[in-house]
Design brief:
2 domains; about 40% helix; 14 strands; alpha/beta; globular; 8-stranded parallel β-sheet; ornithine cyclodeaminase, domain 1; 11 helices; about 325 residues
Length: about 325
Amino acid sequence: MSTAIDVMADAFTELANGYCETPQRLAMTDLKRKGWAAFMPARLSRKGAFGVKVVSTYDDNPSTYGLPTTIGTILYIDNNTGEVLSVMDGTFITALRTGAASGLATRYLANDNVSVAGVIGTGVQARTQLAAVCAVRSIDSVICFSNGNKERQLSFINEMSEQLAVDVRLAQSTREVVENADVLVLATSSGKPVIDGDWLRPGTHINAIGSHTPDRRELDAKSIMKSKVVCDSISSCLAEAGDIIIPIKEGTFTNSVIHADLGELVTGLKVARETEDEITLFKSVGLSIQDVAVAKYVYDESVLQNLGVDFSFS
């Protein structure tokens, strides 16, 4: 995870400095199947990285099909010829890079002396989110909650306590998580707010990654209004993040008070946390530069280590 966070730092630096081509993703929603799919190209000119990801989220996958909510495939492309060099499973890469971006945001925005991480959600994304937080801060204990079945909750607790060597326990409610967390992760597929801004303690840092369409949100308006808001991309969040779009439409929030893009913190163009008591929020919808940056790292390492399977369509 630490390597992935460093890869994200490089990618967001390129983005902030204007060396990335990252068109707004083309997305389709399937309301009948509670699904969403997107097509996400990007080029990072300094890295010489080029590729595209096809990704989908279907809410009923875990319960009905035994599949992850989020599934993806990445095509990594030769930047000079346009030839597809590699086809990668993008499901784990999506979770990894999403977690790594939150880890990068936590590095800049969370207080240094945090010790308790709170996680709402116990799926694949919640795992990498927690791993990233623990990679940049000394977390002693974790409190989690989800509306998933008990088996899924226990799997999360057992896996993450062993992987990260921290105490992980199940809360009785989302409120209990919020009121005890120094760093709070929201990684759910909920379409309605799962927290109340009144529950937030001074000094809390929030990573909100579950909502990525205009009509869905995990945060209520109070949470947004009392936070210093940093986006992975302000323009992308204003186009896709219901957490921000809905309060703006309601007239309770304005985009003019969004503090910064993440890349502006990484490059020092904007300050990060300024006081111990301010509440900070990283809102992420996910950018294709993240996928392509990680894909380049995976491809280069695979070539060096002679990994992968060669194939041809001809």
